[in-house]
Amino acid sequence: MTTRVKPWRGVMVATALPLREDLSVDFDAYAEHCRWLVAGGCDGVVPNGSLGEYQTLTPEERAKVVETAVAAIGGDRVMPGIAAYGAGEARRWAEQARDAGCQAVMLLPPNAYRADERIVVEHYREVAKAGVPVVAYNNPLDTKVDLTPALLARLHAEGLIVAVKEFTGDVRRAYEIAELAPELDLLVGSDDVLLELALAGAVGWVAGYPNALPESSVALYKAALAGDLTTALPLYRALHPLLRWDSKTVFVQAIKLSMDLAGRKGGPCRPPRLPLVAEEEALVRAATEKVLAEGLR
Question: pTM (2 decimals)?
Fold first, then answer.
């Protein structure tokens, strides 16, 4: 197996987790899903993110999700989310990922409360002790902690992070991050600003909608990185009615519905998530059926 030099780059799919009707995890279906994504051109997977409903998993389930992905596609293609309320627990998840064979992990800042900069730095410093490259995940909408360009530059200068999944939707940050920390890899964090951030210098995409449409998503990503707007713009316009759901509260339910419609196993979500309301379901269903009818996969 060839080891990827920077295993956080490329299209890394934040994987949805297939659940059976009794809400138990279908690990066989998950392994098959990981293999299918890589066969469709994706570079790897990010298990145990919010899209993978990690908050509702038992510790045993969470560990097995990582082990299942590694067994399916190899550790250099698996970058687990290791978010936890405490730095000690996050470090233990980083060590579990490392021991399973993963070569990078993705970490939110402390999210149990609104942490200040001193606490954020110590959080990343503790997890870095696991000895596996850390990709920061900036999602102030949910965590209430903003990894500003200046703070990211500090974390990178101290050797605590190698990249950032940028989820604010503010594409202007890409340029400030590049100025303050030119060696820090920028990863697209929200699907609906893919083109803008790719043109601004992103070198990866932690992606949601490739769970349902890997081939067209990869084609869009490659065209965007190449600056090929003749190819990228029509694809982006066609997919955007779906991509924007990645930034909505019900993104897990929306992506799982699109997976079901595309012939994948999305299935239900665990509480407290509820099924889409009728209006939301109709919008996702119509948008998904439209792109499938146009031959996008």
Answer: 0.95
